[in-house]
Structures are given as structure tokens and as C-alpha cells.
Amino acid sequence: MGAFALFSLIYAWIEIATQPVMHIYGPIFVVYMDSPMKYEKWIGNDVTCLYCGSFALVISLLATQFFYRFLVFCRPDQMKFFDGPKLILLFVPSMFSFIFWNF
């Protein structure tokens, strides 16, 4: 829950910096920046990509949180697979989605 709260806060700041505008038409989804940084190509594209990646990270961290709760309450016998340092394995899909959406 701490990771989700921290990255949600970071996502909120990135969204304020980006001021994204999204258009959906059929199967097409377009995101572009509408902040004052839009005139600077060297940072505008990177911040917009960071916005998309951080959105994917926050959504997947929320899913990870629910999966962890499911394991704790419904399948406590399977928690042995995530004891100690192996708990980090729960965050691998979230980091993969962040990297994939960022690039």
C-alpha cells in the first residue's frame, strides 16, 4: 500500500506537469501534452511518455495490492512463495508495464 500511495503521488505531479489531452477514435488512442512545456521538444516527449508509464504503474500497483490481499486472506498457504525478499516478485509485472508503456 505504501508503494501504491507513493507512486500515486508521483503520478499526480507528473499529470499536473503534463496536463495531458487524450483523444479516442475507434481503436486509436492519442495522448499529447498541453502544458507550457509542449514547446520544448527535448522534454515534452519524455514527460508525456513518463505520464503514460506512470499511469500504467499506478494501475498495475493497484492490481498487485488486490492480488496480495487475495493471497493473504484466501490462500494463506501460498504465502510461502512470497516470504522475505521474494516479496519483490509481486512488483515485477508492475515494473514491466511501466517500462513497456514508457517506451
Write up what this structure looks like.
The chain has one domain. Helices cover 60% and strands 12% of the residues. The protein contains three helices and two strands; from the N terminus they run αββαα. Strands 1-2 form a two-stranded antiparallel ribbon. α1 runs antiparallel to α2 and α2 packs antiparallel against α3. It is elongated and about 55 Å long.
Q: How many DSSP E strands?
A: 2
Arithmetic mean of pLDDT: 87
**Distance between the ends:** 26 Å
Helix content: 55-70%
Q: Element order, helices and strands?
A: HEEHH
Strand content: 5-15%
Spatially, the strands of the biggest sheet line up as 1-2
Q: What's the domain count?
A: 1
Largest sheet, if any? 2 strands, antiparallel
Apparent shape: elongated
Residue windows where pLDDT falls under 50 for at least 5 positions: none
The number of helical segments is 3
Label this structure with key terms.
single chain; about 100 residues; mainly alpha
What is the topological layout?
Blueprint lengths: L1 H17 L1 E6 L2 E6 L7 H34 L17 H11 L1
Antiparallel strand pairs: 1-2
Helix pairs in contact: 1-2, 2-3
InterPro entries: 7TM_GPCR_serpentine_rcpt_Str
Keywords: Membrane, Transmembrane, Transmembrane helix
Summarize the entry for a quick read.
The chain has helices at 2-18, 41-74, 92-102, and strands at 20-25, 28-33. The chain has 103 residues and is mainly alpha-helical. The chain crosses the membrane at residues 84-101.
